[in-house]
Amino acid sequence: MVKEWEKISLKLEKLHQRFNKPILFMEIGCRSALGCATMPWDFEHTDLPFSEEEQANFYQSVLQVFWEKPWFAGFFWWDWKTKLYPIEDADKDLDFDIYGKKAEKILKKWYHSERNIPINIERN
């Protein structure tokens, strides 16, 4: 997944350089089901088996690639519902929620760390 995100990162960096604007992911996430990292928009394949690892790897890889990019402004993560399932049911939830799953731990780890880049966004 990292290699695929690196390809996307190169394209987005060129876009940033062309317009001198920061890049922000307005919606990103994937379901905790096998195969969903290759189709993160998917809502329909309800027959796919649960895969906490796939969702966690998706989150880890995108954070790993973009976290230190000085032109990258951040993520809006999809989806955290207002009514959560019981924590003991996390391993049965094939939706986008990360509550009680490995992806939640990954986000906490990254957001508890410092970004080692100067934040200097010029506004035109």
Report what the structure shows.
The mean pLDDT is 92. The chain has 3 helices and 2 strands; from the N terminus they run αβαβα. The longest helix is centred in the N-terminal third of the chain and has 18 residues, at 2-19. By secondary structure, the chain is of the alpha+beta class. The chain has one domain (2-37, 49-111). Helix content is 35%, strand content 10%. The termini are far apart. The chain has a two-stranded parallel ribbon. It has helices spanning 2-19, 52-66, 102-111; strands at residues 23-28, 72-77.
Quick summary:
By secondary structure, this protein is α+β, with helices and mostly antiparallel strands. Helix content is about 35%, strand content about 10%.
Strand content: 5-15%
Determine Rg (CA atoms, Å): 16 Å
- The chain-level structural class is alpha+beta
Mean pLDDT: 92
The low-confidence parts are none
Number of separate strands: 2
Number of helices: 3
Distance between the termini: 34 Å
Q: Characterize the main sheet.
A: 2 strands, parallel
Write the element-wise H/E pattern from the N-terminal end onward.
HEHEH
Ordered list of secondary-structure elements with their pairings:
Layout: H1 2-19, E1 23-28, H2 52-66, E2 72-77, H3 102-111
Parallel strand pairs: 1-2
Helix pairs in contact: 1-2, 2-3
